[in-house]
Amino acid sequence: MVEAALISLPSRADEQIFGRPLLERLIILCRRAGIPRFVVEADPDERERAIVALGAFSHDSAIHIVPSLQHLAQTESLNQTAACIRFCGNVVLAQSQLACAMQEYLSKPGIPLKILSADPERGGSIVIGPMAAIISGSVSAFPSTSLLAVSEPRSNSPLLHDRATLPFALNGRPEDRKEAEVRLAQAVRYESTSTDALMARMVDRRLSWRLSLRLARTHITANQVTITNTALGFGCATMLASTSYWFRLCGALLFLLSITLDGVDGELARLRMLESRFGERLDVITDNIVHVAVFAGIAIGCYRLSNSSAYFYVLAVLLTGFGACAVSVNRAMNVANEEAHRWIGQVERATGRDFAYILVILAIFDRLYYFIWGAALGTHVFALSLWQLTSRYRKKMAPAPLR
Asked: What is the pTM of this model?
């Protein structure tokens, strides 16, 4: 475990990155990574600037402002061999990069790891190692690597790209802040690839991160995006319930747009570092409501076109399948087995909302009734398969009977 973060006060500590001072962002990143203590090195005449740049953490008892990190070597507040992380320069990085660097160091504890920023000047650095080593003044003598090199053993990692472009240091150029924000937005895109379905990775995220980047520079909140997208989803459902071919096609296309926008709220919250449990629940609940509305709209449209009451029964079967899926997923997530969770993640990735693309294709050929019948059957097949798989893993985990 990394015991403390040692931060040399950045010259641009109060530079706003998506509305947060650079120093405050570093504190948040480290705290989320499980680092409990913080030491900020600042000259006495810069102490007030450091307090302002700390933002919401200006009165946090876990943060200490000292005139020199060298004083730590003479105190007993930290063990000299304790693992620490030191930030030098105006470093901007994402949570995934910090986690990657810490994981790499902890795989070889005691051997200092130095990472230079990816800007042309290499104006920033991150060093992880025993406290005595990283404050001894010999940081420059450590061999440096990059997060790209750190990820080479796992070259198929979806984070390979943003590890190559972050961390990034602000070196005084007017365009540095915008460049750092672009790289952070790209990092958010790559962080989600492990859970995204195929078309989401190839198309949706390519669009959503660009929109998230622009919205993060405004006063629009993630929850506002969620609510707006929910209203768009209801509009899609209304259009899909129409008997007009063009209305149904437009409804399918708008639903595809809604799927893309659905990634924006989460990306926006992460860029501003304002994730919340409420926002996560709101997103999940509204997603499910929109899905029910869209499927109901398709069923109503099919009924109005065919005048067959069978579609109301199909809708009832489909909603029952949704409930069965929710129960099966909840049961599966309670299985404390890494292999089971990995498989469940793969299933969720494979069965993501790429169905919106199928919906558009069927709408083009005016065959939406194929979709409603297939979904009614597919939800039950998925729920049953997941239930059986979970039962299999539970049997593997069950303790052997005593003899």
From this structure: 0.87
